[in-house]
Description:
The protein is mainly α and 171 residues long. It has helices spanning 14-40, 43-46, 56-78, 85-112, 114-138, 143-148, 150-170. It has a single domain, classed as TspO/MBR protein (Ferritin), CATH 1.20.1260.100. The chain has seven helices and no strands.
Amino acid sequence: MGQRTGSRSRGGRTWPALLVFLALSAVVAVLGGLATTANVDGWYAAAARPSWTPPNAVFGPVWTVLYVLIAVAAWLVWRHPGHRRPALVAYGIQLALNGLWTPVFFAGYPAFGPAALWTAFGVIVVLVAAIIVQIVLTVPVSRLAAWLLVPYLLWCLYAATLNAGVAVLNG
């Protein structure tokens, strides 16, 4: 018999891995939420924002969906043995950058002023590049997983324009 590949070779062990990826996303979301909650009603409420900024209530649901998509994409990659390591490394890098952006943007401003907003913009530009790399590395492993990352990429591009707008208007 030939070697079995993909999720079939892992049997019932795939669901715990999905829970791990969901938990990693949840940790990043919670840590980001702490930085956001502490500042969204403070300096951010008084800050000048671009006209295309959505209401604050939009961000939570959008990020919740995106974090689930990110986790499912990583899980789909993890299920495929072989060339999955580069895509999973890229996943880890972009998730770390994602986790870095929120405290730099929200918690950094009270301490460092406009410099924090521009630093956050640099972080989100690198994050966008990391997401693109993750998508490129994911395509050969799982096209579905790569497509699941596209809304995340688009949202982060949009968020980068918001970040730049806030930096320009408040710098």
